[in-house]
Each structure stands twice: as C-alpha cells, then as structure tokens.
Write a structure and sequence with these properties.
Layout: E1 21-23, E2 26-28, H1 30-51, H2 54-64, H3 69-77, H4 79-82, H5 86-96, H6 105-123, H7 125-135, H8 144-170, H9 172-177, H10 183-205, H11 213-234, H12 243-247, H13 253-265, H14 268-283, H15 290-297, H16 302-330, H17 332-348, H18 360-383, H19 385-392, H20 398-428, H21 441-465, H22 468-471, H23 496-527, H24 530-566, H25 578-604, H26 608-635, H27 647-651
Antiparallel strand pairs: 1-2
Helix pairs in contact: 1-10, 1-11, 3-20, 5-8, 5-20, 6-8, 6-11, 7-8, 10-16, 14-20, 14-21, 16-17, 16-18, 17-18, 17-21, 17-25, 17-26, 18-25, 23-24, 23-25, 23-26, 24-26, 25-26
Length: 652
C-alpha cells in the first residue's frame, strides 16, 4: 500500500451519472448523505440537549436538600465506577455484534425506553421517596431529605446503567456509517449542532432548572425517546466481516479480557493519549461546583447564567463554522497539543477573584465578554477530540480503544472528584465568608491541567517520531507489520506570512500592556491614589517592560529560524504552526481590553487595590503567553523544519 496516498472522493457513478460514496458495504448518493447526516445530527441535537440537564439539575436539587459537597460529588461522579465493567463489555459486544439492524443501533434502541423511564422517575423522586417513607415500615426512621437523596442516587445509577449502552454505541456508529472523506466535515457540523443544543438549553431551559425541574426532566425524557428513536429508524448500518476474520478466535472470556487490556494498554503512545483525556477529566471534575461559584460568590442569577451560556454557544457556533475545516488541515493532534498549552493560561486567570469583587451587573458583562472571546480556542480544541481518536486509534479496534479510554477515565476521575469535593469542604472551614471556597476551583483544575498537557505533548512528539503528517500509522501489536495502515490526509504546515501575523499579534499584546500600565500609572497619580501609583510605577511597569523585552527576544529567534529554513539550514529550535498561535493571540489581544475595562471600573469605584490586582494579573498572563510560545517552539524542535509547504508532501 502507498503510505503517502491521500483520501480522495469515490469516483464511481450510479446509473444516472451521480457520484457514489462508500463506507464499508454502504453506498451513498449525495441525497443519501444528506439523509444520513440529517438523521445523525438530529439524534446528536437531542442527545446533547438532554445530556446537559442532569449535571446541573441534580447538584441544584441535592444542594437544596443540604447535601455536602463530597457526597454530592460521590453521587454525581462515582456512580459510573459501579458500571465500569459494563463499558468494555458493551464495546466488545458491539464490535462483535452481527444483527440485521447492525452492530451499534441495537444497543441504542433497546436501552432507550428504560433510559427515558429513569428520567421520568427522577422527575418524581421526591414524591416516590415520600410515598416510601409513609407506606413502607423500613423507611419510617429515615429523614425525608435523606430518603430523597438516597432515591436520587439510586435512580441516577439506573439512568447511568442504561445510559452506558447508549453512550458507548452512539459515537461509535459514526465511524461505521460515514465515508472517511467526510469525517472532518461531519464532525464540524456535529459540533455546530452540539452548540445549537447548548444554546437552546442555556437560553430556554437553564433558568427553569430550579423552579420547574420536574417539567424539564419529563420533557427531556420524551425528547430523548423520540429524537434517538427517529435516528435509529433512519440510520442503516452495513454488513460487517465475519467475527472470526475481523477479531480473531477467542479462547474464552478470560482470554478475551486479557487481550482487551494487552492491546489497549501496551503502547506508550496510546497511554499518553489516554492520559490526556484522563487528566482533563480529573481537572473538569470540580466543574459541577462552578454554578455555586457563579451564583453564591459572584451573585449571578440563574437567568443571567443561562444567558451567559447562550452567548457562549452563539459564539461557539461562529467559531466552529470558521475553524472546523482547519482541524483536518492542521491535524487534530497538533491542534489538541497547542490548545492544551494555551489552555493552562485560561485555567490560571480566575485567581484574581480570590481578592476582587465587583458589582453583579459588571460581573455579568465581564464574564459574558470573556466567554465570547474564548470560544474560538475552546471550540477548535473541543472539536478536535473525536477526529483525534479517529486519526490515531486503529479502525479495526476503534470501539475497543474508545471503551478502554472511557474505562480508564471513569475509574481514575471518580475518586479524584470525591477528593475535589473534600478539598472544597476543607477550604470552607478556613473562611468565615459563606461559599468563599468556590473561588479556589481553578487550583484543582490547574493541578490536573499540567499533567494533561505533558501527556498530549508526549503523544505529539511520539507521533512525529512515528512518521508524523506524512507517514504515521497506528501501532498495532496484533499485526505482523506492527502497524495498521490508514490513508494519509495532507496537512498544511507553517506559513511564514501567517506566522508573522501571529507574532505581530503577540507583540501588540505586549505593547498594549506596557501602554496600559503607563496610562493607569498617570491616572492614579492624577487621582492621588498613592498606593496604586507606587505599585504601578515601581513594580508593575518594570515587569511589563521586562515581558515586552522577553517577547521581543523570543519573536526574533523564531524569525531567525524561519530564515534558516528558507536557506535550507537546520533551525535552532522548531517552527511553530501559525494556526493556534493566531487564535490564541487574538483571544488574548481582546483580553487586553477586558483588563483595561476591569481596571477602569475599579478606579471609578475607588478600589486602588483592585486596579493593582487586575494589572498584575494581566502582566502575569503576558509572561505565561511567552512561556507557552517558547514551550511550543521547543516541542517542535527536531521535527518542524519546513515552511510554506504541505507537511505530508514535504516530509513524504
């Protein structure tokens, strides 16, 4: 097989002269692809809309019942641990299933009625527990709140049990029915519909989660049943090779389990990809407490939170529409590595709210603006997730590897989420101000953000060593060649023109920061705010100038390496890709103006300390940006030595 061959459209024609497209034994016309995409995207819209509800609705309900944070985390995050053996079983069974409805659809369709019923029962959980307490002698001794908490935990476990079948098979069906040349485009559309679901949820549903939770859950159950039911009826799977030729013979269940773990966890490259996802999930384990930070610390209402989420989803729609096509062109692994590095800066920034409080309406505008400007980086990083797995996991074991990743993620993150709840509860004992501990959520996220970034950087460099853009094929210890061949998709390498634009954006950030510090220094002097003036003039202004000088040094080295590559010389470091640098640079260029707005408002409120803290925070962001770019340059060292070319063609 020619390892450098690209994926090209199928040129076969129907009897009417229309192009045909293939995925295994499935054949589509353009109209057939429209029906396929419409069915999958409708199912995705319903699936994501419902998936958004319980992670917020149940913590709100549990909090109203007086549930402690650690117990809330245990109910919401450790229930999946009880179902850990189910996921690999479903994965292997679906890979080996041969029914007239396919190998994935049966798992979704059969679980759907029970999944919807469990949502309805959750809607009436308080009534059910009240009836049990009144009519069953065993439950008479339990307090009503305790009984309701236990009932919610039990019904959530039932929901998660049947949800395991749907969740495990839902994303796997994409790989079985979508022609490979349309994966990137479909995933961009998929992310757009996911954002539409999030927009609908945040704008129309979120504000009713506290006041009308029962009605919301009942509607979710109906939508789940109808939406995914229609998808199951319209999406047709093809015929699959016999089990013996596809999976090999099995010597029994124990041997099958051993083979599952040996194939999934024997390669460092796959372990690094798993680690990226696992540590990301660990960091996100305290996200469920974010609503209490916004409500109880920042004073935002449920309606304001819903609108903020809707603003984010609207900007996410635009971001995905603009950036989705670049995921394949830049390669999803590269996108994930760069986005993770810059994402650490975003994780660190909320530290200012430990020391600063502003009026609620100002907070609403600030958070809304920050959500909007963050979406391009967040959208392309999130949209790269599934394409990344499709590009690095072996297709013959795709369900198995996705299940292995889910198994590992669930197992490790569940315990950490309980510890996260304990972490927050312990912090709460040190502060007299109620709910002040939620201002420290970023520390937990940062702790796990660093190892997640290290894992994806290791995977990225290993991918480079295994052939990179031009010659990478997934490791396959079960194959004679030790790899599983897959078509090569040509990617676009660093462009000197766009890279220079990215460098100019970062230079503008540093220059505006210095100018802003000078402006606020003069303003504080004119107002007679001597404490703020002293800090700005003698500490923060020199720091901002130092950041500007450090950036000028880094930018000059990058430009020198570009010139060396043009002369066919080896660069001293690597050539960073321009894509994520432009997106991250644009995001933080907009953040400069948010910082100036924050400092201006603080000055008008006569809060000298807040002016100093906001200014210090953004200067630290400048240093973090310099460190992020330098890290990426060093990561590319030894691999990136081309400019203004398609990488697969240049390296092939």
């Amino acid at each position: 097989m020619d390892f450098s061959s690209e994926i090209k459209p199928d040129k076969a024609l129907t009897s009417t002269g229309e192009k045909k497209y293939h995925c295994g034994t499935l054949t589509y016309t353009k109209f057939g692809l429209v029906i396929l995409f419409s069915s999958l995207l409708w199912g995705d819209f319903c699936f994501n809309l419902v998936q958004n509800i319980l992670p917020v609705a149940l913590p709100l309900k549990l909090k109203s019942l007086g549930t402690e944070n650690w117990l809330m985390a245990a109910i919401m995050q450790t229930m999946p641990v009880l179902l850990l053996p189910l996921h690999p079983w479903i994965s292997v069974k679906s890979d080996r299933c041969r029914s007239k409805w396919g190998r994935r659809i049966p798992f979704i369709a059969l679980a759907l009625p029970f999944l919807s019923a469990s949502l309805v029962m959750l809607a009436f959980s308080e009534d059910i527990s009240s009836w049990l307490g009144q009519h069953i002698l065993f439950f008479h001794s339990f307090a009503p709140a305790t009984l309701t908490i236990a009932m919610i935990a039990f019904l959530y476990l039932v929901y998660m049990f049947f949800g395991a079948f749907t969740n495990s098979a839902f994303y796997l069906v994409f790989n079985d029915v979508i022609p490979p040349q349309f994966i990137g485009r479909f995933w961009g559309m998929f992310r757009i519909f996911s954002a539409l679901a999030g927009l609908t949820y945040n704008w129309f549903v979120f504000k009713y989660l506290e006041s009308n939770m029962r009605e919301v859950l009942i509607c979710a159950a109906v939508l789940y049943f109808v939406g995914l039911g229609i998808m199951c009826l319209l999406v047709k799977e093809g015929k699959y090779p016999p089990i013996e030729t596809e999976m090999g013979s099995s010597n029994g269940s124990i041997e099958a389990v051993k083979m599952f773990f040996k194939e999934s966890f024997s390669q460092k490259f796959y372990l690094a990809v798993f680690g990226f996802t696992v540590f990301g999930a660990l960091g996100a384990g305290v996200n469920m407490f974010g609503i209490f930070f916004n409500k109880d610390c920042m004073g935002l209402s449920m309606e304001q939170l819903g609108k903020m989420g809707a603003f984010g989803q609207m900007s996410s729609l635009l971001a995905i529409a603009v950036t989705a096509t670049f995921i394949d062109r830049w390669h999803p692994l590269r996108v994930s590595a760069y986005a993770s590095v810059f994402g650490l800066i975003h994780t660190f920034m909320p530290w200012v709210w430990i020391f600063v409080s502003l009026p609620t309406q100002i907070i609403f505008y600030l958070f809304s603006a920050w959500i909007v400007i963050s979406q391009f980086q967040a959208a392309i990083g999130g949209a790269a997730g599934m394409p990344l797995y499709m590009r690095v996991f072996p297709k013959s074991r795709f369900g198995q590897f996705c299940s292995a990743q889910g198994l590992l993620t669930t197992l490790v993150s569940a315990g950490a989420v309980i510890l996260g709840g304990v972490f927050i509860d312990i912090l709460g004992r040190f502060f007299s101000q109620p709910n002040f501990e939620y201002r420290f959520l970023w520390i937990w996220q940062l702790i796990f953000g660093f190892p997640a970034t290290i894992c994806i950087i290791y995977a990225y460099r290993t991918w480079h060593r295994m052939g990179g853009d031009a010659r990478f094929h997934p490791p396959a210890p079960w194959a004679k060649s030790r790899i599983e061949e897959m078509p090569i998709v040509t990617t676009v390498g660093p462009s000197s023109r766009w890279l220079n634009i990215a460098l100019h954006i970062f230079s503008a950030i540093m220059t505006l920061t210095v100018s802003g510090v000078i402006f606020f220094t003069c303003w504080m002097h004119m107002k007679g705010a001597l404490m703020a003036f002293w800090w700005l003039a003698f500490i923060l202004l020199p720091l901002s100038i130092l950041a500007w000088l450090c950036w000028a040094f880094i930018a000059k080295r990058i430009r020198n390496d570009i010139e060396r590559v043009r002369r066919n010389e080896t660069p001293h470091n690597g050539i960073p890709h321009h894509g994520l640098l432009i997106i991250a640079g644009t995001k933080f260029f907009a953040a400069v103006w948010i910082w100036m707005f924050e400092a201006t408002i603080s000055s008008q409120l006569n809060n000298q300390l807040d002016v100093v803290i906001f200014t210090l925070a953004f200067i630290l962001v400048c240093f973090a940006l310099i460190a992020a770019v330098y890290t990426i340059v060093r990561v590319e060292r030894g691999f990136s030595a081309v400019i203004d070319q398609n990488l697969a063609e240049a390296e092939g």
